[in-house]
Amino acid sequence: MKNRSLDYSEYIEIAEGVYWVGFADEHMGLHCNPYLIVDGDEAVLIDSGSRDDFSTVMLKIMRTGTSPHKIKRLIYQHYDPDLCANIPHMESVINSEELKIISHKENNLFINYYSAKSPKLCIEEMRMHFDFASGRRLQFIQTPYSHSPGSFITYDTKTKVLFSSDIFGSYDYNWNLYTQIGERCRDCEERNACPAGNKICQIEGILNFHKHNMTSKKALDYALDRIEELDISIIAPQHGSLLHTRVSMELAIECLRSLENIGIDYFLKEEKR
Fold first, then answer.
1. pLDDT tens track, the chain, 273 positions
2. Could you give the number of structural domains in the chain?
3. Domain that holds residue 253
């Protein structure tokens, strides 16, 4: 129901001062979700996106009423091009000496190859948080090898939104901004075609993504342990749909916990067939 009135050509406010500014394409199986956080005269952009998506992302940012000059930090939760490729375009339009890039030191090594212009801040040297002038805090939580050595997630302590990067990401050709995973999915065993009318089971899309993109079960379980310590209102992944209900979060975690063959183990199992 939550998806019916949404216009994906516009920005969408998912929590107070938190905006989805991504690009929706019904023909793409991998949707990327940049997020803008606005707090007073400051703004932070999380995982700004690919080069081709830049114009869409920046237009939506400006439509929120946010001047690009207000963006003080660009946060990149790992270094893949679907997050980082538009950094030079962002720097050019923001055009501010105050702009800095925040990531893990393992990521910043590679992010410098997108652009060395903006100073790079390491989350480890920031005591794992960033504070807005108002005192609002973004907490950084390391999730190493889910899927890269420097991967981390970001928790907004004000709205309790968790920006989960690739964790809870999905391959999904039947994409909606808000997941359709619900109570009816709890005991459902039909994973190829959803009985509720979806082209593909959204849980299956999440599982397939993690089998291919996470390095190991141990790494994923470590990340899920850290996530379950938090009081979360919405899980906002960089790929796929928002998990905005308690049941969708619980089912996603439960199903991911049940995965045995992830990353190298998945590859080795497939190789033996």
1. 566 689 999 999 999 999 999 988 766 667 789 999 999 999 999 999 999 999 999 999 999 999 999 999 999 999 999 999 999 999 999 999 999 999 999 999 999 999 999 999 999 999 999 999 999 999 999 999 999 999 999 999 999 999 999 999 998 777 889 998 877 767 766 666 666 665 677 888 899 999 999 999 999 999 999 999 999 999 999 998 999 999 999 999 999 999 988 998 888 887 777
2. 2
3. 137-273
Q: What is the pTM of this model?
A: 0.93
Asked if 151 and 238 sit in the same domain, the reply is yes
Q: Order across the sheet with 12-15: list the strands.
A: 12-15, 18-20, 35-39, 42-46, 71-75, 100-103, 120-122
- The Cα-based distances of 240 to 34, 120, 236 in angstroms read 11, 28, 9
Same-domain pairing of 141 and 104: no
Query: Which CATH number is 213's domain given?
Result: 3.60.15.10
Regarding whether 228 and 191 lie in a shared domain, the answer is yes
